[in-house]
Design a protein that fits this description.
It is built from 4 helices and 5 strands. The chain is α/β, with parallel strands linked by helices. It has a 5-stranded mixed sheet with strand order 1-2-3-4-5, sandwiched between helices. Helix 1 runs parallel beside helix 2. The radius of gyration is 13 Å and the shape is globular. The N and C termini lie far apart (32 Å).
Amino acid sequence: MLPVKVTDRGVLIIRLQSDLDIDRRATTACAIDRLLAAHRSSPVVLELTDAALSPAAVSTVARAVRICRDAGTTAAVVTSSTKTRRALGIGTGTHAPDVHPTIPLAVAALSATVGAAA
């Protein structure tokens, strides 16, 4: 089970292990799919732990962001690691995720986006 919470602004925050391995990637991706289906209209923040970013974690983040985009909801990634923020913004093409250093900044950015769309 993934650690999850919903803010008072309706933003779904999902905590992911940055050192996710290939064996746990499928299970984690399925859990994220279920959460996104249950909270379809909610903006999503993917919070990464401080561990080194694994290729499986990058793949999982990219998939979750793509699912959100396809569902018409916004998503952001939070990591305190400058190296990880850089890695997520590079090599992902035109669909690079919105990456923030803190949850409050990500929530504020997503809330502003939702408010502007309303």
